[in-house]
Fold this protein.
Amino acid sequence: MQQESSLSPIFPLSAARRDPTPCPMAACEKDLLDVFKKLGIGFKIFRHPPFFTVDDCRKYRQHMPGGHCKCLFLKDKKGNMVLAAVHEDVRLDLKALAKTLGLGRFSFGNPERLEKVLGVTPGAVTPYALMNVPEGSDKAALTVVVDEKLLIFDIVNFHPLHNEATVAVKPDDLLKFIRHYGFSPKIMKTA
C-alpha cells in the first residue's frame, strides 16, 4: 500500500497523487486536497484497492492508524436527509436517530439521490462530499451527524470522494471542513 502526504502540520511533506479517475461534474480528490491546503488541514493519504465495506477496509488498514468509520446517507419520507459518520463498530439505531433528530423513519438514500446531493457513488460516501452540495440548495434539508467516538482519536479516516484511497485528518480538522461548507455537525453519542 502506498502512503502519500501533502503540506501538513501533522505529517511529513511529499507530493500528493491525484485520484484514479478524472473529475466529472462533482469535485474530485484534487479539489478536496486544494480545500485542505486553503483551510490549513494536514492530511495523509493511503492508496488501496476499492473498499466497499468495513470488512474490505479491515484487510488493508494495518498501516492506517486512527479511528475508522462508516458513513451512511439516509432520508425520510419528507425528503429530509442525513449524512452520518460513525465509528466502524457502531450499529446505528436508525429509529432512535430519527427520533433524536425529530425526523421521520429513515431508509437508505438511493444511488441516484446520493449522486445528485453529494456527488459520490455508493461505497464512497464521506463527509468530504459536502463540498458537492449544490450552491443555493436547501442545506437545512441535510443534517450532518458525527459520532462522538470518532472525536477521541488523534486522526480519523475517510474516503477522499472515491473508494480507492483513505485520507487521515485530525478530528478538529474534519469539523472545520464540515463547517466551512455551511453545515453545523451534530455530535452524537452512539451505542
Remarks:
- The helical segments are 29-39, 54-60, 94-101, 111-118, 171-180.
- The longest helix spans residues 29-39.
- Strands lie at 3-5, 44-47, 67-75, 81-87, 107-108, 142-147, 156-158, 165-169, 186-188.
